[in-house]
Amino acid sequence: VTAAMPVWAFGGDREIAKTVMSELQQYKDAGQLKGFDVNLKVEDGVVYLMGEVANRNQRALIAKAAANAAG
Questions:
Q1: Contact 66, 20 (CB under 8 A)
Q2: By three-state DSSP, how is residue 18 classified?
Q3: Within a 10 A sphere around the Cβ of 24, how many other Cβ atoms?
Q4: Residue 59 CB coordination number (10 Å)
Q5: What's the pLDDT tens digit per position in 15-66?
Q6: How far apart, in whole angstroms, are the C-alpha atoms of residue 50 and residue 52?
Q7: What is the Cα–Cα distance from 13 to 46, expressed in whole angstroms?
């Protein structure tokens, strides 16, 4: 999975990354994300996701977490 999407959020790159990671952790705790390896990078408000997921549903959840960082 490789995705890049602009995220317009307050607080800068670090806050955006924290928001995305928090949502991914919620999905993981709920059992919706298993067997995945995704790296997260945020530069100038753009979220970059690189790695592997088990299926399309997981890919959609990870993309959703990045999109939701905008609030």
A1: yes
A2: helix
A3: 21
A4: 17
A5: 899 999 999 999 999 999 998 899 999 988 889 999 999 999 999 999 999 9
A6: 7
A7: 8
Q: Which of 12, 10, 7, 1 is nearest to 51 (CA)?
A: 1
Per-residue pLDDT, 36: 87
Write out the DSSP string of 29-66.
HTTS--S-EEEEEEETTEEEEEEE-SSHHHHHHHHHHH
**Residue 49: partners with Cβ closer than 8 Å, 6 or more residues away:** 1, 2, 3, 4, 38, 39, 40, 62, 63, 66
Tokens for 9? 């959020």
